[in-house]
Amino acid sequence: MTDAAAPHALAPAAAPIALIRALEERAFNAWPAHQTVFHRGWVFRLSGGYTKRANSVNALVPGAPFDGVREAAMALYARHGLPTVFRLSPLAPPEADQELADAGYQHFDPSVVLHRSLAGLAKPDGSTTVMPTASDAWLDGFATANAVALHHRALHRTMVQAIAHPTAFAVQHAQGQPVGFGLAVLERGAVGLYDLAVAPQHRGLGRGQALVEALLHWAAEAGATSAYLQVRAQNTAALRLYEGMGFKAAYGYHYRVPGGSL
Fold it and tell me: Could you say which DSSP state residue 225 is in?
């Protein structure tokens, strides 16, 4: 794993800071942590270790000071038996990334937040069912398709059930079995897409695009005017798919993880 001198070089140009903060806030709400601690413009999120997003330190206020934040986070996460993971978006000051790098934290999992207007949506092909709540079949099917560890499945269920804003759960079937899954969360006119997964043997057949189209259509019908999602920078197939669907890069983020934890 090599370090990177430009932590946000993934996006051609960062979106306006007000949009970045609005998308970050929506993402925190759409994927709620079990426990949240606010600390001088930063938010410490803890969820038993399921997903880095829900178990990381994030800047909440643009340019929030970083002095003392690493030490406070280390103490808190150690108390809960979790590694101290930082997720660094453009809201974090540059000195945070440098201090973490100097302390031996490794640059990990660079990702991109994509964004698009919902104008000119393609009509769904009718192959996807959209439900307002997660059924047991959806939860179990997603966990299997996305290889969620058995000891994390209860955590995933409670996190999904804790989402406060309007939700839509999309599912595709093959031979009567659920094989494709997606989650949409609507807040303040923007819909976030999460938990997009297709069972391995059913990939490459257009199911991912059909899931996204169905969820975007649901959101537009519910009054949304824009959509966003997060994707790993190395997932080139997904990036090509979303680019073909009109998504553009808004900004990048990456994680810093303690040395030796990878």
Answer: -
